[in-house]
Amino acid sequence: MFTVTINSENRKSSYEQFESEFLKICDEHRENDRALVFAFILYDFENEHIGKVLEDPHYWLSLNSISGNYLTVFSLHYKAADMKEKFMEMIKQRMDQDVHKEFNMIPTDQNPSLETNQFIQKYFGKDFKIKYPSVLFFQVKNDVVSDSRLIQLDQEGIEASFLELKKYIKIAAEALHKVNRENKYNVDELFSLVEQSVSGQRQKIQIKKGIKTVTSIADLAATVTGLNPS
C-alpha cells in the first residue's frame, strides 16, 4: 500500500514529488521485487466510506499484508481533519467579508477528485473515464502505462467496502502468487493474469445481483449474457 497525502503541509515532498516520479516509483518497485502489477484506489468526498477504510490502521495493514510483494496499491488521500479545519476557516473568512454570503460558496475544487482526475488523465490519457469509487489495476512498460482495468466499487458501508476492496486485491495477488520472479519483466502476461482474475470476480458479483432480480429462466439467460463486466 502506498498512500500519498495531498494536503500535507510538506506538499512538495509528497504529492508533487509523487506526481513527477510516479513511473519511476513503479519501475523501482518491480526492480526491487516489491510489485509485479499496480493498482489505484480512486475515491472522492462523496465516497467517505472508502476514506474511512484507508484511515483505519487495521484495515490498511490488512490490505497491505494481502497485496504483499505482488501489488503496489496507490491512493491519493486527504486528511479529513485538516480539510474540515480549512473549510471552517474559509467559511469564517467569507462571512467576515460579507454576512450575506452562503455556505455553499466553498469552492468545489477542494474535492480530492480534482487532483486525481488530473493525475489519471496525465498518465492514463485525457479520454480515460474515471468512476468513483473504484480500483484501477494497471501495468507500466517502457516508461508508460501500458494496460489498465477499472473495477467499480459498489458497497457503501465501511465494513462492506473494506471486504469488497479486500476481495479484489486478494484475488489479484493470488493470480501472481506462483509467478517466478525471473519473469517479472513479462509485464503483458502478468497484467493479463490480474485482469482476467478481477474481471471474472466482477462478473460473478454482477451475475449474483442479476439473479436476485430475475423471475424466469428467460430473464436469467438475458441477464447473464447482457451483463457489462466493467
Tell me the domain tally: 1
Query: What is the count of helical runs?
Result: 8
Class computed from helices, strands and strand pairing: alpha/beta
Let me know the largest β-sheet: 5 strands, mixed
Helix content: 40-55%
Estimate the strand proportion: 5-15%
Side by side, the strands of the main sheet go: 1-3-2-4-5
- Amino-to-carboxy terminus distance: 24 Å
Oligomer: single chain
Uncertain segments of ≥5 residues (pLDDT<50)?
A: 99-109
**What's the overall average pLDDT, rounded?**
82
Succession of helices and strands: EHEHHEHHEEHHH
Record field, number of beta strands? 5
Radius of gyration: 20 Å
The best one-word shape is: globular
Which helices and strands occur, and which strands form pairs?
Blueprint: E1 2-5, H1 15-31, E2 37-42, H2 48-55, H3 57-67, E3 71-77, H4 80-97, H5 113-124, E4 134-141, E5 144-152, H6 158-176, H7 187-213, H8 217-226
Parallel strand pairs: 1-3, 2-3
Antiparallel strand pairs: 2-4, 4-5
